[in-house]
Specification:
mainly alpha
Length: about 70
C-alpha cells in the first residue's frame, strides 16, 4: 500500500539517506503502477493525498515548492 508505515517512527530513530532514497524509489514504482491501473481523476487524487501526507511528515508544502501545476514540475 502506498505510504505504508514500516513499523518504526522516524522521529524515534535516525533514518539514513539510503533508506530515504529506497523509500522514494519504492513509492515512485508504486505510483507508476497505480497510474497504469487508475483513472486520471483517481490517480491525481492519490498523488495529492501522497503529497499531503509527505508534507505532513516533512513540513514541505509541495504547492509552494512546485508552483503552477502547468509547468510540469510535479
Amino acid at each position: 500500500m502506498l505510504l505504508s508505515a514500516s513499523g518504526q517512527d522516524a522521529s524515534e530513530s535516525e533514518v539514513t539517506d539510503e533508506e530515504v532514497v529506497a523509500a522514494a524509489e519504492a513509492l515512485g514504482e508504486e505510483l507508476a503502477a497505480a497510474k497504469e491501473s487508475s483513472s486520471e481523476f483517481a490517480f491525481t487524487t492519490m498523488v495529492m493525498q501522497c503529497n499531503e501526507a509527505i508534507g505532513d511528515e516533512t513540513g514541505v508544502d509541495y504547492g509552494s515548492v512546485c508552483g503552477d501545476a502547468d509547468d510540469g514540475c510535479c
